[in-house]
Amino acid sequence: MKNLLKTLILSLTLTFLSPGSATAQGMPTYDNTNFISLVKQLLESGKQTAQLIKSVKFLKDAKESIEKVSNVVRQLKAVQEIGNNNQRLINVIQNDLRDILDSPYIKPEEVSRVVESFDAIVQNSLDTVDFIDEILSSDYLKMSDAERAEILKQKELESREMVSNITAKTKRYKGIISFRKMQDKINNRETYY
Questions:
Q1: In 3D, which of 143, 98, 93, 149 has the Cα closest to residue 121?
Q2: Does the pLDDT value for residue 21 go beyond 50?
Q3: For residue 17, what pLDDT is reported?
Q4: pLDDT score at 166
Q5: Residue 126 · residue 83 · CB < 8 Å
């Protein structure tokens, strides 16, 4: 036992006094699996970033295409509305103006004023159609689709005003005819006294 105790004390002394135990902090290790895993993650992140950049570019191109189509649709709607308004003008002139001019209650000197007032509106309508044709058929001063759509929208509003004007004039002339007709009936009635 004495030998065993001496061996144990000697072992403990050597363990505590050895220079390796006092200064040993471990040897740095290099783990290849962690580095390879990190590189794989970086490569995967790079691929995902490239995909995101492609997606953003695609969405940007799609947005621009949608805006172009939207502008073309607005232009088409404005042109269609102007065409509808011009058709209304033609209908008014074909029907109502003919009735006004054929009425016996419109005086001969008034016919030229009636025709001139309607003619001004029709001429403005024809000028608008020519202007629209010029805008749509050429690069009218190299304007963008949005600018072209804005001009067409403005012309559409002017077209609505023309329809409103011609409707008001037609109504006014029909009112004059109706009043004169009633006045004629009153003035030419037979009295039974």
A1: 93
A2: no
A3: 61
A4: 85
A5: no
